[in-house]
Amino acid sequence: MTPHPRTRIKVCGITTPDAAHAAVDAGADAIGFVFVKDTPRYIDPEEAAAIMYSLPPFVAAVGVVQDLDVDAFCALEYACPAHTMQLHGREPVDVVAACGPGVIKAFKYEDATINSQLERWAKVDEVDALLIDGSTGGTGESFNWKNLAPHLIDYPKKIIIAGGLDETNVEEVIKTLRPYAVDVSTGVEDAPGIKNPQKIATFCTAVRAADG
Fold this sequence. Notes:
This protein is an alpha/beta fold. The protein has one domain (8-211): Alpha-Beta Barrel (TIM Barrel), CATH 3.20.20. 33% of the residues lie in helices and 22% in strands.
């Protein structure tokens, strides 16, 4: 039997250098910066860039944006040229394509729309991966992972799972869906935007154990 590839880990909502380096020390593959204003994890792009440039090799920075037009997207990407950008709103296909290549498209899981969402983004070459969340982002809501599993059989793009993940349930997610990556934010916090280094370490340990 072919072994399951190592599940990548993204710790999102990073707002300080200390939180970033706690994630790195715990074994995270990527850290996420939220560039959505008026949210508790917002970080100024220039501050994020300073943290990004302090990361060691092979740790990626992901910029999270929501419902920007192409000009605003490009301006933000110029201020913080993250390795990957994650579009976490209701962006139409033409905007997503213009913001590519190499973007992550995020959306909320819903039973009624999952097929159409997967079909839509499978056709967009500029999308490298899909992030499937339990909400529109940042609320820590989970969803029924077992309902998603049949839809991912032979799906052509990488899948990232987010929404309500923590050290107690990430093993179930990995064994049920075998995603390319898992994305955690609220599950490793003491309060919105305040990361707990021990929770980050425990989460990463749980992911490695699930990979087994």
